[in-house]
Amino acid sequence: xxxxxxxxxxxxxxxxxxxxxxxxxxxxxxxxxxxxxxxxxxxxxxxxxxxxxxxxxxxxxxxxxxxxxxxxxxxxxxxxxxxxxxxxxxxxxxxxxxxxxxxxxxxxxxxxxxxxxxxxxxxxxxxxxxxxxxxxxxxxxxxxxxxxxxxxxxxxxxxxxxxxxxxxxxxxxxxxxxxxxxxxxxxxxxxxxxxxxxxxxxxxxxxxxxxxxxxxxxxxxxx
Length: 223
Prior knowledge:
By secondary structure, this protein is α+β, with helices and mostly antiparallel strands. The chain contains 6 helices and 17 strands.
C-alpha cells in the first residue's frame, strides 16, 4: 500500500527544521548505504551530530507519533531515528530495496518506509520518489510537510534533481503486522470502523466491524 499523509508537519515545524538544518554539515549518503545501494546512491545526509539530531527528531516525532492515519496504516511497534537527506543538482538514487534489518544497537525489521517532504515542490525540478507497484510505477512529489508511506520491500528510486534542492526526512518502521497485504486490509477496515464509531456508535453493524478489526489484529499481530 502506497499512502499519502497530508500535513504531517505544520508550517511552524517546517520553519524550525529549516532553521536547524541551514548551517548543518552534510556528508556523502553512501556512508550509510548497504553494498548494493551504495552503487546507485548519490545524495547527502546530515552528519551524525547527536544533539542536533535529537532536536530534529523531537520535532518530527511530535507529529508522527500522534498522527492517526500513520498509526492506522503502519501499526508501528518500532520507528527508527530519522535520516535527513538532501539532493542537489545531478544527485539521484537508483533502483533499490531498503535493507530488511536495520539498527546499530537493537536490531529491527523494516516493514514500512516513510518519506517526509521538507521543501516546496516548486523549489526544485526532478527528485520524484518513484515506487514500483503491481499497477506500474507511481511518482510521488508532495508539498512540504506531507509524507508518504509504502512497503519497504518495494523497488523504488529518486529521480535526478536538475534544479534546486530536495530535502527530505526518512525513517523505517517495524510493524506489528509484517505482511503488507494484511496491513492494507486492516487499514481499510479501520477507516470504515472509525467512520462508523463517529456516525453510528451504537449500531450492531458498528459493533461487528469493531469486533472484526480487533480480532483480525489480534490474529495477525506479532509482539
